[in-house]
Amino acid sequence: MKTPANESPHTTSTAAPSAAWLAEGQSSQRDMLASLQTLKAQSEMPFNIIASHRHNRPEIFEFADSVYREPSASATDSDEQAMLEPLEPLMPRWQFVLEQAKNNNVKVLLTGRNGIDYEAHRETFDAAGIRLLTGATSVAALEAIDDKFAFMQQCHEHDIPVAEAWRFDNVAELEALLATHGHQPLCIKPVTGIFAQGFWRLDLAKNDGEQYDSFEHLYFTEEKKINTAQFINAYANSLMVHERPIPMLLMPYLSGQEYSIDVVCEYGEVLAAITRYKTGKIQHIGYEQAVMDVVIPLIKAFGCDGIVSVQTKADDDGQHRVLEINSRPSGGIDYTSHSGVDLTQVGFGYWLGLTDKPKLADIAQQITPCQVRSIMVSVKIEENASE
Length: 387
Fold this sequence. Notes:
Layout: E1 19-22, H1 29-42, E2 48-53, H2 58-61, E3 66-69, H3 93-103, E4 106-110, H4 115-119, H5 122-127, E5 131-133, H6 139-146, H7 148-157, E6 166-168, H8 171-181, E7 186-190, E8 200-202, H9 216-219, E9 225-226, H10 228-236, H11 239-243, E10 248-252, E11 258-266, E12 269-279, E13 282-286, H12 289-301, E14 306-314, E15 320-326, H13 343-351, H14 360-366, E16 370-373
Parallel strand pairs: 1-2, 1-4, 2-3, 4-5, 8-9
Antiparallel strand pairs: 6-10, 7-8, 7-10, 11-12, 11-14, 12-13, 13-16, 14-15
């Protein structure tokens, strides 16, 4: 098992080739590191692959040449795992990564889940010769992307087809919106969030006044359906919501096909992209031009930069509408490799200077449509491994 360089008594380094650094991500860091190792093996120009994470993640670190443990600044840094003891003296994550990146001749840094922290110091990274990939090129753009309501308003300003949404912050506002818009199928989700957290379909506008069964959302949990009266009651009586208000969105539920689009982009220009949709457990990989006709102006409008993912869904008329941008690689970006185009390699090959700038039209021609089934894998963890 690799020892993080900042936990080793021997951290001095000699002159090194250029390097790519993948900081802590949401769920694709391991797959992307593996893709970079394949790219490295095929490349005539040597480069190093560095990974960092605030937790001890040997299953991720095994695909990196060098690894670092990122500082954990506060209790809010600890979501699914125990918080690390902070390094002494504690320094901001971005500053720690910057210092180590300069020591390791890093040319490209993908920031993963903490993009805004890094983006606020873009000029400092630029001055160090580090190509910073946060998903956009300003804090304002990243904040607009994270706030789904602000995001949708900005899409309207740019005439980009987007799902409608109405914000509510309390029960009275929700009930008023339901009175106005309850004639149509509706759904609810938080203004900010990931992994479909807080998303529910309501049973309004079902045929003949039919309602979702009161036990349905507890039994068929993956369906994300809930009786409207039950949702209102739960929201109104929630101590969690009372103590920490959660801004929510009420939206029309779109009935068409949902797509996830993985995008390699630079300063608002789409360099490469792959579209995929899911039926059951099967991912259908390809390149749908009708979907890309919405994605291309979207990426331009928000100045997206790096590797991002977009979600769209078609309405009753078949018009693809934007749901959201995630300013980081999706958990399914590795699926793209089955199409003959590995987007991780396309992006990093370009940013490391191994290949010419990708052209979207050329990449689209190289994609072989295919179907992919995701499977679970396991890795052995040493008994003395600690979080």
